[in-house]
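Q: My labmate handed me this sequence with no annotations at all. I'd like to see what the chain might look like in three dimensions before we decide whether it's worth expressing. Could you predict it?
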Amino acid sequence: MTKKTLNSNVLLMHIFLGVNALIMLYPILVMVISGFKTNYEIYNRPFSLPNSFNLDNFIVIWTETDVPAYFLNSVIVTTLSVAFLLVMGTMAAYALARYNFKGNLMLYLFFLSGLMLPLRLAIIPLFIQLKALGLIDTLFGLIAIYTAMGLPSTVFILTGFLKTLPSELEDSARIDGASEARILVQIMLPLIMPALVIAGIYNAVPIWNDFFFPLIFIHDPQWKTLAQGLTMFFGEYSINYGVLYAGLTLAALPIVVIFIIQSKQFIAGMTAGAIK
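A: Here is what I predict for the chain of 276 residues:
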């Protein structure tokens, strides 16, 4: 392949990626811009820039509605769910990847079975069980559901990553007298940080955006999550689109910020093993 052909292929790849990025980002850009518009502007000029970039819709949604409470509930549920997932998933994945014991493969397949069986199929028995435990209308009920739902994928991601690490690292630490807990915390955790970021973002996004489980298990308005609470802007006869788009922008902001902050670790985890 000549240098000219290679440059042409690189140029075409960049053009393709640029067009793809534009297609993906355009709806988000329209949503953000619409958050600064009035209903009149949205109806008459839906794809144009607003007359002025004022924060009226954002002020309304933050001061005159219960969105701040819904936002806090979503933060609590997402943060604790991801924390439980990473802690339990790391311990389970470390045991499966670094220790050979009877039933290791069966236990690993048991975790993987959770990827093939959607939890929503068991919504009726799940509702009965949570009601018997008194977890209906509680954030802890949602946290328990999301933890159970995301644990199989977390174990799958972390187990595969841990298996790529050389065992000599642990052997050297054991010779120096390090305990198993110290090996995991001080040696393994820093090395699998990219995989932890991938598992965290992979689970945080659907948990933050989920509408189904809060709709089923949360009936008390004070415990509604953000995705559930934004439905109050859909009126029977009219919709305040400006305020709605402002709420959607606020809902998307935390995940975007987290991804930007952790993008380096995320890319490192996605490309691990690609270059030898």
